[in-house]
Amino acid sequence: MLPDRHELFSTATAILLSIYQLLQTGKVPVRVHLPSLFCMHVASHIQKVAEICWYRDLPTELTPNFETLHPNPGDLVVAVNLFGIRQQQPWQDWLQHHQDIVLIEDHTHDPFSNWARQSTAHYAIASLRKTLPIPDGAVVWSPQYLKLPKPSLPQSGGAYYKLMAMLLKRAFLDGAEISKDTYRLLQTQGEKYLSAETDAGVSIFTREILNCLNILELRQQREGNIKQFLELVSITEHPDWTPLFKSWFPGTVPFNSVLVCKNNQIREKLRQFLINHHIFTAIHWQQPLEGISSHDPIAIDFSNRILTVPLDYRYSSEDVAQISTKMNEFSSILTTA
Ligand SMILES: Cc1ncc(COP(=O)(O)O)c(C=O)c1O
User: Quick one: which atom of ligand 1 is closest to the CA of 14?
Assistant: First the structure.
């Protein structure tokens, strides 16, 4: 499934930093252009080595606002397939008129989309553990056959903390007498180690297991779950929150279902309500974070109202039905409040 010529790293952040090191050869500093809705943790790593320029890219729009993107020749431009629902064409058209920059496409949210497979970018990357059952791992390839960065450090121990956490959680769910704190601590510790990696290779475990996964089936299951969720929650549409998208183009599979709440208070109420029912949502992505922000008021407002509902390969149809029921319960509480 992976492109013929690729490199595996522990994380996508490590790949971005390694591409930067590979290309920062001359005296003129290379700048990195990031979308205004992006993972601020990754941005904080990049900011330690390079100047970041932000361009407006909002998931409510079909394309980035290219008028806010002004790279110098040689700069790195990171294009993100936000939530896996974006199309290739706008970036392809833009690239035709900007061949003097280096385009890095980030396919983390749908690493096996048509866009990813047919990419014409200088580099394409994806953090694989966000959509596959692996403790670490990110891939880089070059659709333009440029020199690939290589990890110079061995695998990260963080992957094995996370692997232990995954195994113990499975045992816990199967009824073993294991405290939740044990695997949660290992998970947090593992993520902490991984997020500190700047140049580590993928773990041997992930490298091996990647060849055994039925990636297309896992992707299909994600799509089926999202469709089911949207069908079930759309029955009782609520003015206080709405799905960011209800359909998507052929050849794309969304990352998860994303909800947009009317304001931050409702988002936090909903998040807490779901936590109380053991449903753990995510925020893509909080900003400011660690003092870093795109300074785009619309992206910041969006980051305060957005909520990602996990519906990936880990969830069965019964799980999805249960999550949907809880969402609908929340809606009726809001309506009657
Ligand atoms: C779109 C996107 N790109 C890159 C990353 C960074 O991935 P990693 O955690 O593997 O460094 C993330 C992480 O959340 C992400 O969501």
Answer: 11
Say yes or no to pLDDT of 235 above 70.
no
Q: How far is the CA of 12 from the centre of ligand 1 (A)?
A: 6
What mean pLDDT do residues 141-170 have? 95
- Ligand 1 and 16: CB distance under 6 A: no
Mutate to test the pocket of ligand 1, among 18, 108, 113, 195 (most ligand atoms within 8 A of CB): 108
CA geometry: angle at 253 spanning 294 and 249, to 5°? Answer: 90
Q: Residue 231 pLDDT > 70, yes or no?
A: yes
> Is pLDDT above 80 for 336?
no
Q: Provide the mean pLDDT of the chain.
A: 95
- DSSP secondary structure code for residue 201 in this structure: B
Helical (H) or strand (E) element with 163: helix 158-173
pLDDT at 333: 79
Q: Is 110 in the pocket of ligand 1 (CB under 6 A)?
A: no
Answer whether 162's CB lies under 8 Å from 135's CB: yes
Instruction: Please indicate whether residue 80, judged by its CB atom, sits closer than 6 Å to ligand 1.
Output: yes
Enter the DSSP assignment of 144.
Answer: T
Question: Residue 176 to residues 34, 38, 180, 228: CA-CA distances in angstroms?
Answer: 45, 39, 11, 31
Q: Which two tokens stand for residue 206?
A: 């992930």
Please report, in angstroms and rounded to a whole number, the separation of the first and last CA atoms in the chain: 50
Higher pLDDT, 240 or 131: 131
CA triple 217-218-219, angle to 5 deg: 90
CA 189 to chain centre: 20
Does the structure show a pLDDT above 90 at 243?
yes
Atom of ligand 1 nearest to the CA of 109: 1
